[in-house]
What we know:
The protein has 5 helices and 26 strands. It has helices at residues 6-17, 40-44, 105-118, 376-390, 397-417, and strands at residues 4-5, 20-25, 36-38, 57-60, 69-76, 81-84, 97-101, 125-133, 140-142, 149-157, 183-185, 188-193, 208-214, 218-225, 237-246, 251-259, 265-266, 273-282, 291-299, 305-316, 327-328, 333-335, 338-340, 349-357, 368-369, 426-427. The strands form 6 sheets. A 6-stranded antiparallel β-sheet has the order 2-7-4-5-6-3. Strands 8, 10, 21, 24 and 26 form a 5-stranded antiparallel β-sheet that branches.
Amino acid sequence: MATTTLNTLLPEFAKRHGYWVGSFTTTTSITGSDKVIVSTGLISSGYDDDDALIDYWIRITSGTDDDAVRRIDDYTGSSGSCTVASGANLSSGSSITFEVYTRDPNDITDALNTARTALYPAIHKVVYERDISGEVDRTKYTVPSTIHSVSKLWYEPRLKSNWADNLVGTLDADFEGDLTDFTTSSATLTAETETTSPNNQMVWHGTQSGKVLVANSSTGYAYLAVPSPTNYEGEEINISFWAHALSVSGATVKAAIRTDSGSWSVGTAHGGDGWERLSVSLSPQGIDSSIHVGVQIVNSSGADYHVYMDELIATAGRADNPYPQAQIIKQWYPENSSVVIPSGVPENSNLLIEGVAPVSSVSSGTDTMEIGENRYEVLFQSAMAVLSSGEFNESDDNELNALQRRNTHSRNRVSESTMVVPTRIRTVV
């Protein structure tokens, strides 16, 4: 699925619709004590008259203030000096890159985000949710909120940590050993043993799980190191494990992965209601020495907080597609926010749901929207219709007529481009 960052979408939209001035680099260091941005590149681009850029907008694209937007309050053409009107003082820095727009880029971003939902389902992303545990005699399953419409269902065998394709399967990923393969940071890891009378519900499979404890005001980790990590350069690494956590204010539990000593990438937080499958994916580049996979616990609850984990699996390659052992479910139907499978899901299987949803919203420059260059036009025309609609109440009669024509043109272009919509999709509400 093609994706595009906001850093690409904003300039491309502005160039097509007359809001673009250019991209520049500061030629005088920003001191951090004022609100002045200077670039002689503005002069060489033809902006050599005083006040030529007043009420234009700067979007910073590097340095500490990356993504910051400021309105130009004053401009000196002889020096290419812009004084910005609002916001905190800018951070010190040299050779800072920035873009200049004739319209607030935050307004454009908002319009793009509104357009992405208005265009659904003609423009959509495909979503897979596989962390749903099948239960004996259960026929109704809630569809995760990440999916708006369901297209296909599979059941997959519930993989165990000893699965042949598990990258950490030779380590303590089953939590049945002494757990010495794990490394901890600001956390303690101990074995939790299954008991009877009463039955210990803190073991998902086998006779042991791992109990991870993190003190208050700490962020702790427990993780395994993937053997031969450089073998997986550029491949998508996917990890998942079962975690038992209870909802406590100030505590979050997430699957976590990192390469070398870099920052951790984390998945969606645990819901706080017992056993749940957690997962996260990363496509590492430039691996020097390690890939670490495990759990992150952020604890600001006011007391110690613990989580149980079991059956850690790491795989290389895209996680979207069904496993080879998956079986498609042919008989099912939607019911409100659920799907009903009359035949049920076989024991020791997980449910895999394929569906669609609006493409992702964007706010920072590196955020991505699941849209390729071939769909720019329809997205931009829809966003342009949003922007021109918002200008109606602020325009005189002459401007209003022009805006109405522009709005109608944009909406017509959108209608022409969205005639074909996805088929074989059953909507869940």
